[in-house]
Amino acid sequence: MTEKTAVNMLGESDSLHQQVLASFPLCDVTEDDLTQNPQFCKLLVILAKHMDRTGLTASLKAELEKVSASAEQNLQSQRRQWLHTEVLHRSLQEMIQDRHVRKTEPPDQSMLHETMEKCLLVAECVRQLDPSDTTNQEPPFVLGLTPQNVKELMPADKDVQRMRQALPKHLEKHLREKCLTLLSYYQPEWESESEGLKTVKMSHLSGLLDKEKTRAESLRGTCQENRLLLQRQTQLYISELIKCIQLLQTLILDHRLKIQTDLDGKKLDYLEGKCQLVLQKLKAEMVEVQLDTYTPDSISAHRKIREKLESELKACRADKQTAELKLSSFEMLGEEFKALAEEYCRLRSEIKTKNWALKEFTHVKN
Question: Stretch 247-266: mean pLDDT, rounded?
Fold first, then answer.
């Protein structure tokens, strides 16, 4: 791929970013980083043709696979040997445990199990006293015992020989029972089938278990890929969520005053409506108080008093208007008439006073 082709692909296809991210899952790079750095993205596209998902080159990976295959083969060989010995040892121990659980068995089997148990016990003690066959440790000093002292506790040679001749048959029977138990656990519906059919299916059990193991490993790999994809999508989601939060903050800061003005206007309308409602309620209360205070008779009397007062007010207003007309006519006559009017008022006052004095004198005289 040339540089020009890589740049064109970067500009034309967004899926290329996803391919680059899938080629380097261990690299902490986002799609935004690739978009902002096209040259770096082009470099990753070129490197993806020479490296695998773990970062190894093609030649190093081939050499590593070759070494790994040899090591894996050796490991599997050692593992098979160890598993063969371990299975045999555990099977013998299980046979001994079954003997202790049953407590009743034929004499020949009882002798076989006793001999086998003594042989296993002596072998375990010898291994504990002389671990040089399996480790580099020095033989421990336990009560002055040596492996040779413990080997003297072995059963008689004829019993051991008889045990070795009969053991394969009993061991095969025990392993067969365990395999049938495993088969029943793996497929419970096969438990009611015949013995021959169970034996045939038991021969295919290892293949079925291998298929299940392969399927489990495949599902594990799929789960790993889904986990990485989920992590990447979570990062993208968080990034987009942060952008949305920033946009919301901007909207809040830009439109807060406008929204506050609208809210204040609505609040003012609400308070005005509430004030009008309170006023109407007060008026209703006043009317109710008036209805409770004034009876129909008192209202009728008040209405008559009001009519009389209004008529008297009307007469007073007419007298006032007449007096104002006379006063205006008197003011037109000037200052000389004012002096005559004052003299007239004085004379009338004197006449009034003298009439009062005459009336009092006449009253006293009588």
Answer: 79
